[in-house]
Amino acid sequence: MREIQSALDSIDLLLFATSRALCSPFAVFVQIQGYVICLLLAAGWAGAAYVRNREVRQMRKCMKDGNPFAFLSHDIHALEHLNQVNLPGVTVVMPLKGFGEHNLHNWRTQLTSLYGGPLEFLFIVDSTEDPAYHAVSRLLLDFKDDVNARIIVAGPSTTCSQKVHNQLIGVEKMHKDSKYVLFLDDDARLHPGSIGALTAEMIKNPEIFIQTGYPLDLPSGSLGSYCIYEYHMPCSMGFATGGRTFFLWGGCMMARNFISMHADDFRTDKHGIVTQLSDGGYSDDMTLAAIAGAHKRLITSPPVAVFPHPLASDLTFSRYWNYLRKQTFVLESYTSYVNWLMNRALFSVHCYLSWGFVFPYTMAMFHVAAAVRFHFKHNFAEEYILNPIGLKLVGGLFVVTTIELLSMWNLTRIEVRLCNMLSPEAPPLSLSAYNWCMVFVAMVVDNFLYPISAIRSHFSQSINWSGIRYHLRNGKIHKIDRTMEKGKKFSDLAAKRLYGRKAQSKISILGSLSRSLANWRQPKKYDV
């Protein structure tokens, strides 16, 4: 018994000594720095919420003024036949890999767009053995002649990532009269007016180089899904500007005709777009963002470009970890020395802020544990004195964390409301599905793991992406190993099963309107 008591006393001595040490001026600085990081995040989310909510108010005003189709356009006259027939052609390029539980519904939202101009959809797979090939083939049979869509087999990539290879093949095969190309991921769930809204912005401002959007993650309940939601939320600030931004999300990018294989600018390889993507390109969005920055080209993100992103119901922590590895691995690819410097700066700042965010919570654990032991301690010797500054620091951390979570909750609430307004035909999203205790845990876990993942990516210089291992050298892919491809059965955000159950589409007014609009658009379909 005495030995146990002696051991407990030794632990208490260490605990109280650590608590007092964490009240030193440097430790106080570290904890106050954590407060600042929390408040900066809260301020950023508040600004993003203001931009999104402004769009909500504008849509409500339009509906109040007699425009029931405000989810398509604020100006109801823009939906008149005379204006719709003059809209430019758009090609939607979707690189696919595997077939998951949400893919079928996502593809339906893309195909049932209410865009009134010429529209073609290109589904790009690397092989007919890809489960996505058979799933898309069955889906297109449902639409038959209602949409202009086809599947293209791109073959395996040899000099760049498979996604980039599929995108470039899609651009090569797009119709010669398409003025804009829209790249979408298979996990991008569009609203009926998304393509029209992106196109309208491109028409309004000829200076726009690329338009983009960002996902609103819908966690499935697992810690891994909440970690992905938390990872995306700070990034979402850069996309909720309502205009100019410096970031790109590869899941949704609309570009002008310079990306068309039939355009003169593409033939001359303007800005080296094709060269930099095809010659060892790993990341489409980071490469294009670097090109835009180098040539001072404009990237914008309209306020309506926020897309529901349901995460897999069986998203495990290991799949989250591989997803995080892919995100940090992106910083190891670059196109120029300036781009390398920018990536190193992002690497350093993100790692510093991540652990700067986590350290105060680690310190708070010692302060709280020491306070609990002090409450039950009967020996008030000098060694067991509790520094009151520790609990004050814990109280301050609780306050700023509450402010941060409230700001995140408010932005999520407004984005959920905006998505529901933009897709009135879809089952409404609900904020009640979010577990905010899990969100807090995910914040700490994700920020703790980010520097570890980034450091590992830096030293490994290789990554497994959907069963394909890419090796980098000097910022470019120099080796592609496909030996793991057949053994890989799951992607990171959704299980990619060989067979998926076919979702039944619900009949709705908007769905009927989509089919009617598709038939009305039929004479303008491209001759392919």
TrEMBL record:
Where does the record say this protein resides?
A: Membrane
GO BP, one example? glucosylceramide biosynthetic process
Q: Which UniProt keywords apply?
A: Glycosyltransferase, Membrane, Transferase, Transmembrane, Transmembrane helix
The EC designation for this entry is 2.4.1.80
Q: How does it sit in the membrane?
A: Multi-pass membrane protein
Q: Which organism is it from?
A: Mikania micrantha (bitter vine)
Q: Does the keyword Isomerase apply?
A: no
Which GO molecular function terms does the record list? ceramide glucosyltransferase activity
- Please state which protein family the record places this protein in: Belongs to the glycosyltransferase 2 family.
Instruction: Please identify the protein, giving its name as recorded.
Output: ceramide glucosyltransferase
The lineage's top-level taxon is Eukaryota
One GO cellular-component annotation of the UniProt record comes to:
membrane
Has keyword rRNA-binding? Answer: no
Chief localization class?
membrane
Please name the pathway: Lipid metabolism; sphingolipid metabolism; Sphingolipid metabolism
Residue ranges of the TM segments: 32-51, 352-372, 393-411
